[in-house]
Amino acid sequence: MQFTDVGGVTKAVLGGRLDSLSVGEVETRFIANIVPKEQPAVIDLSQVSFIASLGIRMLLGTARALGRHGSKLALFGATGPVMEIIETTAITDIIPVVSSEAEALALVTA
Amino acid sequence: MDTGGETKLVARLPNGPAAIEQSRLAVIRFLEPFGIFGRTINRVEVVLEELVGNLVRYGKSVNQVTVAAGYRGGVIDLVIEDDGVEFDPLAMAEPPPFTSLAEAPLGGLGIPLVRRLTSSARYDRVGSGAEGRNRISLRIKNG
How far apart are CA B131 and CA B62, in angstroms? Predict the structure, then answer.
């Protein structure tokens, strides 16, 4: 898990399996590195190989907490199986999910 | 345990965090020779993660989790049984559609995922008394 600042946008890179075990291990650090900054964030999912409901909940909770500060969050780079699960949960209705980092950055800074 | 298809795998696991990974690896290993599509394997993994994960997290009365799998004619049958008190996780109402980020519920995403990733999902209470078990029978088409 890596965090960088891209011109006032927090960029987080997640990797590996976002299953119940790993979410339990990374969630606190993930949220702590994004939400307190009170700035937009983009999440790179290109290296995530698996996601289930607890991973979706972590992303949703982070987006909601950022939203309370008036900041947006976007996801990008999800691979086929991960994208299918994201779409199946329908969180795409409330969190932007795009292909590229550039698109995600443009969306959260618009 | 009857999976509907030809049962090839029955994994009996003590309830605990390790059961999630053990059931996943057992089922994936079982399905490997059949040339199942990657996205179908992913659906199987998500369904196991949700249902076995729920038992591990919330099934205080569960001592043993049994996962059975069968494959025939492009269809994967999964059966997940536990020896806990009677509980039907599939009885949970479908949550309303997301309307806004601020009002989105954070919980309850797992069972809707299971319903949507399977072509059928059924709960039965089987056995009686001390032999009573919760059984969830699931079908996932390879495709």
Answer: 12
Which region, left, alpha or beta, applies to residue A2 given φ > 0 means left and ψ of -120 to 50 means alpha?
beta
CATH class of A2-109: alpha beta
Domains of chain B, by residue range, sit at 7-141
The rounded distance, in Å, linking the Cα atoms of B65 and B52 is 8
CA distance A25 to chain B (A): 13
CA distance B114 to chain A (A): 10
Q: How many angstroms away from the CA of B130 is the closest CA of chain A? A: 30
Domain B7-141 adopts which CATH fold? Heat Shock Protein 90 (3.30.565)
pTM value?
A: 0.94
- CB–CB contact B38 A67 (8 Å): no
Q: Look at A81 and B116 and tell me if their CB atoms are within 8 Å.
A: no
- Spell out the domain ranges in chain A: 2-109
| E strand or H helix that includes residue A51 | strand A41-51
pLDDT in tens, B20-59: 999 999 999 999 999 999 999 999 999 999 999 999 999 9
CA angle at B43 for the pair A25 and B68, rounded to the nearest 5°: 95
Quick one: which of B135, B118, B117 has its CA closest to B126? B135
Counting residues of chain A whose pLDDT is more than 90, the rounded percentage is 95
pLDDT for the residue B82: 97
Provide the chain B residues 57-76 that lie in CB contact (below 8 A) with chain A. 57
